[in-house]
Amino acid sequence: MNKNFKKEEFKKSVAENVKTLYRKTIDEATPQQVFQAVSYTVKDVIIDDWLATQKVYEKEDPKMVYYMSMEFLMGRALGNNLINLTAYEAVKEALDEMGFDLNMIEDQEPDAALGNGGLGRLAACFLDSLATLGYCAYGCGIRYRYGMFKQKIENGYQIEVPDNWLKDGNPFELRRPEYAKEVKFGGYVRVEYDEKTRRNKFIQEGYQSVRAIPYDIPIVGYNNHVVNTLRVWDAEAINDFQLDSFDKGDYQKAVEQENLAKNIVEVLYPNDNHYAGKELRLKQQYFFISASVQAAIEKYKKKHTDIRKFYEKATFQLNDTHPTVAIAELMRILLDEEGLEWDEAWEVTTKTCAYTNHTIMAEALEKWPIELFSRLLPRIYQIIEEINRRFVNEIEKKYPGNHEKMRKMAIIYDGQVKMAHLAIAAGYSVNGVAQLHTEILKNQELKDFYQMMPEKFNNKTNGITQRRFLLHANPLLASWVTDHIGDEWITDLPQIAKMKIYAEDKKAQQEFMNIKYQNKLRLAKYIKEHNGIDVDPRSIFDVQVKRLHEYKRQLLNILHVMYLYNKIKDHPELDFYPRTFIFGAKAAAGYKRAKQTIKLINSVGDVINNDRSINGKLKVVFIEDYRVSNAELIFAASDVSEQISTASKEASGTGNMKFMLNGAPTLGTMDGANVEIVQEVGEENAFIFGLTADEVINFENNGGYYPMEYFNSDQDIRRVLMQLINGEYSNGDMNMFREIYDSLLNTKSSDRADTYFILADFKSYAKAQEEVEKAYRDEERWAKMAILNMASSGKFTADRTIKQYVDEIWHLDHVTVEALNS
Ligand code: 9GP
C-alpha cells in the first residue's frame, strides 16, 4: 500500500478539482467529470515521482532506450496507474466513502487505442516493464487524433465509427511546446561546396514543414517511484494562417502547410499485419521519427560534447519496419548538422539502431516506391541510396558475381525502397519475437541476411505485464494467488510456479473454479448488457479474441461451430456439454474477406442462439468493439484459449500468454509462442492439433496441397461448406458467403485455394475440441490443468523479455528513485 497516499487529502483534492475544472460541487458532477477530477488528483501524485525520476536521470546520466513505434495500445490509464502506485485499494475506499464506485469511474475513461493489436500492446507492456525494472526509457510515437476505430455491429456487419478519444481531454498528458521540432517534407536538395570544411553541404529547399509538438504521458513503474515517459507527437502548422501571406504570394504554401499538419496525425491506419502503402503513412512515419531523433540528439548534447559517442548513452529500438526511416534520419543529422564524415556517422548509426521483426507475412513488409519516397523525403532518399550503394558493394565483396544475392538483398531494387533490408543492413541487432519465428527468419524469410551477418540475429520471446493482466484484470484470482504464495509474483512472475503444489489440492481446485465462475458471471453480465444474449456461466467459455485475419483462422473456428450444430441437430440425444463460443475481433476497414467472416460469425450466432430445440447447448457471441478494457474482463473469464493460426504465420501472439496467466489452457497449433507455452506447461495440459510449421512451409514451397480432396472425401467438411452456399445461415441468400466458399475450394489466378490450410486442419481441430470437452467434464482434471497453466506462465512476463533486451541488446544502466519527500 502506498504510504504517501492520504485518504482525506485525496478526497479533498478530488472535490477541489471538480470545483476548479467544472464550477460544480462533487454531487453535481457527472461520472465523466468525477473521472477527470480523480485522474488529475492521481496525476499530482505521479508528477512528484516523475520529477524525482528526471532528477535521477539528470544526475546519473544512464544509457536510455528510445522505443520507437507507430503504435502504443495503452488502454485505460487510471486503474493501471493506481495499481502501479499501489494505491488502488486506498482510492477505492476513499471513493466508496464519497459514494462512488471506482470500477464505474474507470469505465468513464476511453481506451487510448493508439495501436492495432499485438504489436502496439507489446509496446505498452514493454513500457510498463521498463519503468518497473528501473530503466530509463522513452516511448516515441504519434498522438493520433483518432485512434483505432470503434466497431459497431449492425445487422451482423462491422461498421467503423471514429474513435474521438480526446473529446473530453486526456487528464494524464502534458503538452510540452518548449520541446517542439520542425519536420520538413518535399522540396529539393541543393548542393553547395563549403570552402571552409571542404565538403559538400546538402541544403533542403522549397519544402513544406510542420511543427511537431510533444505530449508526455507518464509511465508509472510498480511500487518504485520510477516514472518514465511516453512521448507522442502532435502536428501544428508552422505558418499559422497569416493575412500577409497574400502579399508575399505564398498564400498557397500557407494553406498547404496548414493541411499537412492537420492530416498528418489525424488517424491511425487500421491495418494489422498488412501495410497500406499510402503516402500519408510515410509522412506519419517520418514526422514522428524526425521529431524523436532530433529530440534524442538534443538531449544528448545537453550533457555531452562528442556526438561520436552518442550510442554509449542512447539506443533506438525500431518496432517493426514502420520506424526504420530513423536510420536515415540519424545519418542526416550526423552528416548535415553535426558535420561528421560518412564513416563516422555510419558507425554511430549502426551502433544505435536495433530492429525487431514481428511478422513473416509478406504483405506486412513495407516497401516504398522510389518515386514517392524521393519526392517526399529527398535528402533521406539520397542517404538511403548511398547506404544501398555501399551495402551492395559489400554483398559483391562477399559473394563475387552473385547477382541473385544482390537482387534479393539490396535495399533499393525494382523501383522500391525495402525498409526491412535497410533495418537489417544498418541495425546492430535483428530479433524475432518467439523461438519458432526467429528460426523461420533465419532459415527462410531472411536466410540470405542471416548467412551474411549471423551475429546480428537473436530471439526475444514476447511477454505481457502481469500487473495489468492479472493484478488489475482479475482481482479475485490475484488475491487468491497472493494469499497462497505472497505478492512477489507481481514483480517476479516466475514465483507463480509456487502455485503448482496446489494443482492437485481439492480445496484449491474448488477455489480456483469458483473464482473462474465469478469471472464468468461478470462476463455473462457484460454480454447480456451489450449483446442481449443470455449465456450459461456453467458452459465452457471457449474464446478467440484477436484481430480478424485469415491466417488467425477465425473461419476454422466458426466452421467447426457449424459442424457441432449439425451434430447436435442430428443427434439430439447426444450428451453434449454446453459451450459458449466467444469471438472478439476488428477487421481492417478495407479487408473484405475479414469482414465477411465477421458477418458469418454473427449469422451463425443468430441461427444457433435462436434455435430453441437445442436447449441452449450452444451459443455464439460476437463481442462488439474488442479492445484492451474489455479484454481484461474476457481473459479472466475464459476456459479455453483459441490460438489456432496456420503454423508458421503467427510470429508470437501475446493474447495466448494472457489467457494462460488467467488459467485458460491453450487449444492451438504449434505456432508462435504456443510452442513455448506447451514447453512450459507440458503437452498434456494443452490441446494441440494441426499441421506443423515445417509441413506448411513444405506445402508452400513445393505444392501438393489439394483442399478439394478433403471436400470430396469428408462428409462433415462437405456439408459445412455447402451450408455456406445453400442459404442456411443467410435467409436463403446463396451468394452471401460464396466468396468464403470459393476461397476454400476454387483456385483463382495466383492464389492457392485455402491459403491457410483450414480444411487440412479441420478434423484434427475437431478432435482436439472433443478432447477439450472430455477434459472439462472431469472437473478435477480441468482445475488441475488450469492451475498448472497459470502456475507455468512465469516465463511470459514482459519483465523477462525486457531483461533480455537490456542484457543482450541495449545494455542499459539500472536506476533507483527515492520518493521526493522521503
Ligand atoms: O502478428 C504479430 C504477433 O504474432 C506478435 O505477437 C505481435 C507482437 O510481436 O506482432 C504482430 N505483428 C504485427 O502486428 C505486424 O508485424
TrEMBL record:
Entry GO CC: cytoplasm
Cofactor(s) in the UniProt record: pyridoxal 5'-phosphate
A Pfam family it matches: Phosphorylase
Catalytic activity annotation: [(1->4)-alpha-D-glucosyl](n) + phosphate = [(1->4)-alpha-D-glucosyl](n-1) + alpha-D-glucose 1-phosphate
Enzyme class: transferase
SUPFAM superfamilies with a match to the protein in the record: UDP-Glycosyltransferase/glycogen phosphorylase
Keywords attached to this entry: Carbohydrate metabolism, Glycosyltransferase, Pyridoxal phosphate, Transferase
Entry's EC annotation: 2.4.1.1
Modified residues annotated as N6-(pyridoxal phosphate)lysine in this record: 658
Family as reported in the entry's similarity comment: Belongs to the glycogen phosphorylase family.
NCBIfam families registered for this protein in UniProt: P_ylase (TIGR02093)
Protein name: Alpha-1,4 glucan phosphorylase
Organism: Murimonas intestini
